[in-house]
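Why do we bother with holo predictions? Because pocket geometry can differ from the apo form. Keep that in mind while you read this record for zinc ion.
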Amino acid sequence: MRRRVRQECGFGCVICGLAIIQYEHIDPPYHEATAHEPEKIALLCGSCHDRVTRGMWSKEKVLEARLAPITFVKGYARDAFDFKVPFELFVGDNCFTDVRCIVRKSTGEEWFSIEPPEAADAPPRLNAKFFGPNGQPELEIYQNEWKCTTGVWDLVVRGSIIEIRTAPRKVMLRLRAKSPHGLELQYLDMIFQDTGILIDEHGTVRLSIAGTQIQMKGSEVSSADAVFNLP
Ligand SMILES: [Zn+2]
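The structure, written out:
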C-alpha cells in the first residue's frame, strides 16, 4: 500500500517535489485512522509536513496537492547530494578516486562523469543517467542534483540509500551517499547504449559489449581519465 501511495504521489512531496518524504494522513489524522486508505495518505517532505502540523498550512492544501502533485507537473521528484573533495566513488567492490568518468566510448560519449571542482572549496560535480528497461532514464544526477522520474515503478529512500525498482523484487539501482566524501554504487543492472552494466550483490562490476565481458572486482583506480575505455 505504501508503494501505491508513493507512486500516486510521484515519489516526492506533493507540494514541493522533494524526494525525502514522510507520510501524512490527510483525513482523518493518524491517531484517529482506523483503516489506512491510500487516497487519504499523501507524501510530504519534512518542511511542508511541519507547516501542516503547525496549522500554518491547511489539510485542504494537502488534499488538493494529493489530487494534482507537483511531481507529475515537473515529471520528477528531486533532491541534492552534499559532496566535497577528496571524493571517492565506490563501484561495487572497487574504489575510484580522481577519475573523470567511469565509461568512455570511442565516440567521446561518457557514462558517469565527475567534473573537477570549479574552485578550491567547491564540490566535485557528478553527472549520470541510469536507464530503465524501456531505455528511459529513471534516475538522473546532474551537477550533484538527482531527479527520479515519476514513471518509475518504485523509488525508496531509506537513510542515505536510494533504491529504484522496476518491478516487484526487481532492483535496478541502489546508491548510498557517504556524505560528504563519497558515493557508493551498490547495485546496478542497466544498458548504456550497446553496453550492459551490471554491479552485482558480490561487488563485481561486469560490462558486456558485443559478446565480450569485462570484469572488475577489488580494484583501486586513481587519477584516470576513464576507468573503462570502450570501442
Ligand atoms: Zn515539501
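The radius of gyration is 20 Å.
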